[in-house]
Input
Amino acid sequence: MKATEIDLHKELKKYFGFNNFKGLQEDVVRSIISGQNTFVIMPTGGGKSLCYQLPALVLPGTAIVVSPLIALMKNQVDAIRSLSSETGIAHVLNSSLTKTEIAQVKKDITDGVTKLLYVAPESLTKEEYTQFLNTVPISFVAIDEAHCISEWGHDFRPEYRNLRNIISQLGDVPIIGLTATATPKVQEDILKNLDMPDANTFKASFNRPNLYYEIRPKQKTVESDIIRFIRQHKGKSGVIYCLSRKKVEEIAQVLQVNGISAVPYHAGLDAKTRAKHQDMFLMEDVDVVVATIAFGMGIDKPDVRFVIHHDIPKSLESYYQETGRAGRDGGEGHCLAYYSYKDIEKLEKFMSGKPVAEQEIGFALLQEVVAYAETSMSRRKFLLHYFGEEFDEETGEGADMDDNVRNPKKKTEAKEQVVTVLEVVRDTKQLYKSKEIIFTLTGKINAVIKAHRTDAQPFFGTGKDFDEKHWMALIRQVLVEGYLDKDIETYGILKLTPKGEEFIKNPVSFLMTEDHNYEETDDENTVT
Ligand code: ADP
Output
């Protein structure tokens, strides 16, 4: 259908009561209505749902919406039903339905009443459903939380891998993938797995200019530090994330003893207590929720003023999502995370029982967390680069909103060293991850270097004047500045970018800062 034939603003107003589209919504809606494969990357709260709901409502046929979260599906169905006098306009199809209910769903679809059909990915694999869906007109298939398709996403779900096959059985229907988190690697995986390399891609900015990012070394005094922080934010709402249920209970208790109104929230509490604590937080009967990551899904409290990570998360995706719950209303949002390398080792240990491939991915994601925590460059720039977005640290919105930018370390000229790094990457044939590059620079041997006889090369050990930590800091900054890139297939092997090749020919000034050395400030008895 031609999008121009429909008065989209009128439909928007009619169904949703909004006068204007938000951000990229209108372009996305037009892309879907014109029947093209579409890929949408928008941070949480960006208005993704409307992107497929409006086209579903105006196009002939039924749109299938694949979503992994049953609770959220139900909310969405209720929301759509409230827009219409027709209950059958939206349905969920899953195994909990009775035979009569399934018959009703099928009837509504056949009668052309149902515009949106929500299904969990595992339901879609059931033959009885696919056979039926094959006989009715489908307008498009929307795949929500599309990052679940990628092992490199933070929430890989194997069932998502089958979706493309199943959709093909439904005939030639357009696909729309949507996600709120996707690094360039995950984006590539999604497009590849859904076999839609030429999809219209819409990516909104992930920058949250009102959020202030801060990392503190995690010391023995972490609890009193948190208490001091909360007292400085007296009466304001905040969330404290901990890794374990036990830690959640401990911290909640410590806060209560110190006169701070706080409640725990984790999956070990019964549903009633959880709901009560959540409501207390939403109704502002308590200031602080101490929680595991079980807390926050679908929670929309606009005035959360701080998010504290007592324990560093296992990926920057998680960090971004969890910190993202602060300052939804655009007001103050302080994101404070405590970091200790010991916590990273603990997270690594958790992964030790998993399949090797999964472990490798887990380690690589953790290394990004380490890099983010230890870097002394603009945290916003680092974070946005991770999600494939350029950020201008001079003029970008929110440029001064992190600890590193507010308290800058001394910068030193590193032009020559950058050339050295880039040349070593080039001369080792772009086969190495940063570890081997650093070994080559500092003259350290491992099996890979030996096998390639890199130790016999004239450039081996040319960077001996600086230690490994220094080179690591430099490589992290060179990556963010775009002179090097991580290979998208292996996600680790360093490649020269055209900008890097140009730098070797015509070097320019490159000011670097050393990474933080948190261990120096670490107590002997660090609490982890
Ligand atoms: P996401 O799924 O991307 O997290 P939602 O679809 O839940 O985001 O939308 C976030 C909020 O924005 C919702 O409260 C929604 O009603 C609102 N919203 C969406 N589109 C518009 C619009 N065009 N105008 C005003 N508000 C909108």
Remarks:
- The pocket of adenosine-5'-diphosphate is lined by residues 18, 20-22, 25, 42, 44-50 (CB under 6 Å).
- The longest strand covers residues 211-217.
- The radius of gyration is 25 Å.
- Residues 149 and 160 are 5 Å apart (CA to CA).
